[in-house]
Write a structure and sequence with these properties.
By secondary structure, the protein is an alpha+beta fold. It has three helices and twelve strands; from the N terminus they run H-E-E-H-H-E-E-E-E-E-E-E-E-E-E. It has helices at 8-15, 51-64, 67-71, and strands at 23-31, 36-45, 72-77, 80-85, 89-90, 97-102, 105-112, 125-132, 137-140, 144-146, 149-155, 163-169. The strands form two sheets. Strands 1, 2, 3, 4, 5, 8, 10 and 11 form an eight-stranded mixed beta sheet that branches. It has a four-stranded antiparallel beta sheet with strand order 6-7-12-9, with no helix packed on it.
Amino acid sequence: MKGKKISMVFILIMIMILIAGCYEASLELDFDEEGSMKIESEIIGGTYATRDDMNKAFWQLKIIFPELDLNYYTRREGKNFRFIRHDPISHQEINIIEWQEEDGTYTFEMEIPAIYGEEEDSDDLFLDIVVIMPADIDMANTTNVEDNRARWSIRERDLHKNITLRAFTE
């Protein structure tokens, strides 16, 4: 058993559901050789999200999760906001991420839990996830791979089942 771990990444993913209006969300995980990562997240307000909606959501996040003020640089620009972690965090502190290094080969896995009980028809983007590995990626379960970067675009229609993201280096 992994034990109880605080997962700020998971919390950020889940809280994005609460934001009023349409938006796009992205998460970037930049790994080093030991499996520690720099984390950066951005939420971009869409056409139907007002500046006030996004301002309210930004302050809700900061009040609900003091972790944001303690460990993240937070920046609000109009209808967009960013969270950038001050210091790298170990993969061991995030319960939805598995990381392994063996003889200079790195393996990344991230499981996003099912959110909906039934399949949705929406093709709207739920979350864009970019993973940067410490070496060039040999294989990933996405077609969007360039050198050491892999990008997954998770759609709302996919949120009725667990989603596992995988990448392996050469």
